[in-house]
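sorry to bug you again but im stuck and you know this stuff better than me. what follows is a protein written twice so to speak, once as letters and once as structure tokens for the fold. id like you to explain what the token line says about the fold, in plain words if possible. anything you notice is useful, everything is just below.
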Amino acid sequence: MNDSAADPERLAAALPTDPPAAWTRTVETSGLVEYRLPSEEGVCTAGKVQVRPDVLGDAAVRVDFVKGCRSAGTNSYESIERAVNVVERTLETALSDQSASGEVGETDA
């Protein structure tokens, strides 16, 4: 187990509780915080950002990005603050990308 993994309650409290526009937020007791952007074009979400303590790696926080039905990458961060900054930017940029092109863009994490 990773001793540097973020405290799940502290992580959940630091992340945006009121996500922008159509994003929804759910929190699981395991420490997973998930943001979803719905899609009208099928069963997959337009975008999803999953944030959790990095219990298996060496970092504090792991963030997984999903675009449609496919993974758009995973990044690890050494601090909760850095992960929160990336998540906030991703939620905002995805909305800009979606309104310009009709779909969620790649993350710049």
User: Anything to note?
Assistant: The radius of gyration is 13 Å. The beta strands are 24-27, 33-37, 47-53, 61-67, 70-77.
